[in-house]
Amino acid sequence: MQPILSVQDLSVTFGPKQGPRLLPAVSGVSLDLRRGEILGLVGESGSGKSVTLRSIPGLTRHYGTLAGKVMWEGRDLVAMSDASLRPILGKDIAMIFQEPMTALNPLLTVGVQITESLKAHTTLDARARIRRAVEVLDLVGIPGAAGRLDDYPHQFSGGMRQRVMIAIALASTPKLLLADEPTTALDVTIQAQILDLIAQLARDFDMGVILVTHDLGVVAQSCDRVAVMYAGRIVEEGTVRAVLGNPRHPYTNGLMRSVPQDVPPRTELFSIPGTPPSLWNMPPGCAFAPRCARATAHCTAEVPPLSALEAGHLAACHCPLGATQ
Amino acid sequence: MARSILTRLLLMIPTFALVMIIIFVLVRLLPGDPALALAGDRASDAELATIREKLGLNDSLLTQFVLFIKATLSGDMGRSILMRAPVSAVIANKLPITIFLAVYSVGLSLLIAGPLAFVAALNRGRWPDTLIRTVFQIGLSMPVFYIGLVLLTFLAAKLRLFPVGGTGIGLFGQLYAMFLPAMAIAFYTSAIILRNLRSAIIEVLDADYVAFAKVKGLPPRVILGRHVLRNALISTVTLVGLSIGNLMSGTLVTETVFAVPGLGRLMLEAIFARDYPLIQGLTLTFAVLVSGVFLMTDLFQSWLDPRMRQ
Amino acid sequence: MMLTGRFKEALKKPGFAVGLTIVGASIIVALFPFAFAGHDPTAMDYTAINQPPSLEHPFGTDTLGRDVLSRVIWAYRVNIPMAFLATVFAFVIGVIVGALVGFHRGIADAIFGRVVDAVITFPFLVLVIAVVAVLGPGLVNMYVAITVVGWVYYARLTRAEIIGQMGNDYASAGRVMGYSNSRIIFRHLLPNAISPVIVYWMTDMALAILLGSSLGYLGLGAQPPQSEWGVLIAEGRNFVTTAWWLSLMPGIAIVLTGLGFSLIGDGLADILRPKG
């Protein structure tokens, strides 16, 4: 099956265009996404996962420089002007944010915030737009949806606000949903509900989802495939079963071991030694080498390419962990 | 909503009690004998005594204060010595001119500062931003009377584009005649507004809801007008409301420079003439104007911001 | 120290450096006006009255043939100290009152709150003019009037900062250690609370220059024949059609000095603003 979205060798640098010091936030990231598929993008803060996501709809282009391609239905989004991008954004590609309180405009009713997007992308008249707004609020599970169109964001609870944001994103039935840590700001129980909602919507509408998160539990619960990012690059990618079941990159392995699971109480948690490198000051070879127990001279000299270790499982490592089973 | 207005109004009672005390004490401290000022230098002692009696100057301070409060509440602020008419009538006569001038200059300030703040914020750090900020930084360092004189010299006296004084007839006549006095104030206030609005816009542009509006594929017109402007306006409305005192100070100066017969010029005349009752009435009028605007600012803000309506 | 580092950083920004240069140069002119004035500011020359600006008289001459630039330069002696004298007493009184009511709260604070409300209900200039009217026009009375009204703004700001600081642990630690109240207020709280007040003081100095010259212009501040920028401008206001330089040239000095002080204020705000 053809991917609907194909990110090819995307790099994002921040700083003045001809400046001597450019900050390489994302380097050579490639990703494919099929319809109905949920791809998890995992990493620590500063790994470039959010920048990657925000670069797809061009949100970073006004303060950063983008290189590479983001192919959407045969067109390169990176090369398109703001004006030609606009009919695609909000219609085919939608995005939701981490903190609904700051992503929803506090001064506008949720009704206005849903219908304004419909107005921009559909030929529906005002009545039909309102009907559609009630429909999507209902769809995301807002009780008494019709009576809440005139409410303001602050009149909703945290979980409900996140549902409102999803409703706004879904209003014109997009084919791709970009979700930037959509559950980080929520309680654990509500977190699970929202993830279920996203997974169900992806299934029902055959919608592709890229889900950025720092939480491997979220990935395990709701994603089909996962890409792990470290210091601006993808270090491992594959099906959730393959990557989480049998991590081949030492960094992914370290991440897995730092998640408490099936351990007796009061066992000391594993944590990866050292800290991620500063993007200002990247080591010449593998960015993870200084923290890696398996690092060799080769690792510190040359950046390992992302290559297939087996079908549907890629890792960027000179000396990957062995396959188990 | 009605409740918060009521609370606000109730809170104004102690404030105004204090305002009345300040005015009362200030005016009692004024040098010179008001009876003498009223009657003229050649008045006989008997005449002076009658006037003192009439003004209640022989009563104790407390009685005078009670009488002052009573009279003021019933709208009687005494007779102006200078204008030989009731203070309330004199003020009512000149009040519209000053209000017109104040509203006019706020309008001009917003017309100047609004678009320029957008240009500066959208070009943050580039030359249009630097240019606008430098010009207005200089604007902030120019006293209103000096801006007024510069405008007067070049646009009125030299080029004869505008009259050098007066108020004009009819709305357009007034707008034309008072353009320079209003501009003199607007030059300063727009500098303050621009500074605040620019940083408010920058803050809003970086907000998540603007990013959200962008990925919704909304046209820039809708993003700037509906999402950015309204949010940036909230802090600016407060600022404009709180600058009403500055604005009134500005009208006082500009009315003097351009010989506009409003409350500000009247205040200076009253002070030089030691016109007790008129100073008292004018000071009170200014205080009422300012707190009226504070109240309107609050209301306007809660109209703009639904979070403040509860 | 950290502050010197930030100071050096701020100096790299053109605004702050320009502000320091302007104010520094202004102070030197105020100290040694005779070194800069090309003419005796009081020397009348009936052969050269109302001369427009020329190389000999860059700001022209006035109705008595005096050199306007020299008069402006001698006026630095009045206007530069004005920035300091019109604000320093309000600063000191305001900081002390604000710190005390902020620390003790209670009834004094409640009364203070009403006073603030009442004072900000008057336009600043109206109240200052009313006080000047009570005391009589003149430079000293003008300083008194500005102080009588202005301290409230410093006190309000200091009070808010002190209350903010009292939430910190070290404030309660001081109490546990049994320090006296005044020691806690003035040795512990105030040094941490004072930065924004100092920034406000700097911008207030710029405002004082504008306010002082405005009052001079209105006839309520410095009195002629004293050389003060507002007074000089007022003297020329009846000649805007025939001798515009009389009132417009002295204004350049106001704008320049006001700009200098406000640039320093902006720079200080950058230096003293807590980062992170």
Concise synopsis of the structure shown:
Chain A: GO terms for molecular function: ATP binding. Chain A: It comes from Gemmobacter denitrificans. The complex is a heterotrimer of chains A (325), B (310) and C (276). With 325 residues, chain A is an alpha/beta fold.
Model description:
The complex is a heterotrimer of chains A (325), B (310) and C (276). Chain A is an alpha/beta fold. Helices cover 30% and strands 22% of the residues of chain A. Chain A is built from eleven helices and twelve strands. In chain A, helix 4 packs parallel to helix 6, helix 5 crosses helix 6 and helix 6 packs parallel to helix 7. The longest helix of chain A is centred in the middle third of the chain and has 18 residues. The mean pLDDT of chain A is 88. Chain B folds into two domains: 72 residues, no CATH class; 220 residues, MetI-like (MetI-like fold, Orthogonal Bundle), CATH 1.10.3720. The radius of gyration of chain B is 24 Å and the shape is globular. In chain B, strand 1 and strand 2 form a beta hairpin. Chain B is mainly alpha-helical and 310 residues long. A two-stranded antiparallel sheet of chain B has the order 1-2. In chain B, helix 13 packs antiparallel against helix 14. The longest helix of chain B has 36 residues. Helices cover 78% and strands 1% of the residues of chain B. Chain C has 276 residues and is an all-alpha fold. The longest helix of chain C is centred in the first third of the chain and has 37 residues. Chain C is elongated, with a radius of gyration of 22 Å. The model of chain C has no long low-confidence stretch (mean pLDDT 86). Chains in contact: A-B, B-C. Chains B and C meet through helix 1, helix 6, helix 7, helix 12 and helix 13 of B and helix 5, helix 6, helix 10 and helix 12 of C.
